[in-house]
Amino acid sequence: MAAILIVEDEISINELVKRNLQLVGHRCTSAFDGNAAISELQRHSYDLIILDIMLPESDGFEVFKQARETPTIFLTARGSLSDRIKGLSMGADDYLTKPFEMLELLARVEAVLRRTQKNKNGFEAGDVRIDFDSRQVFYKGQLVECTPKEYELLEVLVNNRNIALSRERLLELVWGYDFAGDTRTIDVHIQKLRKKLGWENVIKTVYKLGYRLEVKE
């Protein structure tokens, strides 16, 4: 997976972001002020930077100037439209407004890495292989026929692997906020994926919540 530099001066936020990114397999380094981030970028290369704008020492814009075309997601304060516009005009790949949902950050990280070709174009676990570019799924070398929603649900589980997702959250991510059905839809699709991929013990049921794709990185 990717090497990510997290530049955020609030220790609790920095650690929370780091912990969640590591859960899905990324290698993370933390910096808590602008000068430390610049020093880190001079010593090592990264696939992605998650960069707060309001930092001690040097601000996020100064750090970004030292990033040397490294893909960057800016973190901005709520309502700071001028900061968002400035960050994007400087060439940032994305921005996220504080406070933010961790699942949204994870999704944006995967999207930026995919666009910049720094992420794997596929995923493998046991006998299952997924090709993200072609949206094809293979089990023991054989192509598995998946409906569009089965594939989208599978991709959400993979991108959020080792994280427990509620049925409601899975509905939002796959079917959208305006879906009129109920959470039993998730249960039906999960059972089909388990059967097709031999993942009865990989897609775990989280009691009274939802599901978690449990894999070892």
Provide key terms for this protein.
217 residues; alpha/beta; Rossmann fold; Arc Repressor Mutant, subunit A; 2 domains; five-stranded parallel beta sheet; four-stranded antiparallel beta sheet; 8 helices; elongated
Structure in words:
This protein is of the alpha/beta class and 217 residues long. The protein has two domains: 3-115, Rossmann fold (3-Layer(aba) Sandwich); 122-213, Arc Repressor Mutant, subunit A, CATH 1.10.10.10. Helix content is 40%, strand content 23%. The chain has eight helices and twelve strands. It has helices spanning 11-23, 34-43, 60-65, 81-90, 102-115, 148-159, 167-174, 184-197, and strands at 3-7, 27-31, 48-52, 72-76, 94-97, 122-125, 128-131, 136-139, 142-144, 165-166, 203-206, 210-213. The protein has a five-stranded parallel sheet with strand order 2-1-3-4-5, with helices on both faces. Strands 6-7-8-9 form a four-stranded antiparallel sheet, with no helix packed on it. The protein has a three-stranded antiparallel sheet with strand order 10-12-11. Strand 8 (136-139) and strand 9 (142-144) form a beta hairpin. The longest helix has 14 residues, at 102-115. The radius of gyration is 19 Å and the shape is elongated.
Summarize the entry for a quick read:
With 217 residues, the chain is an alpha/beta fold. It has 2 domains: 3-115, Rossmann fold, CATH 3.40.50.2300; 122-213, Winged helix-like DNA-binding domain superfamily/Winged helix DNA-binding domain (Arc Repressor Mutant, subunit A).
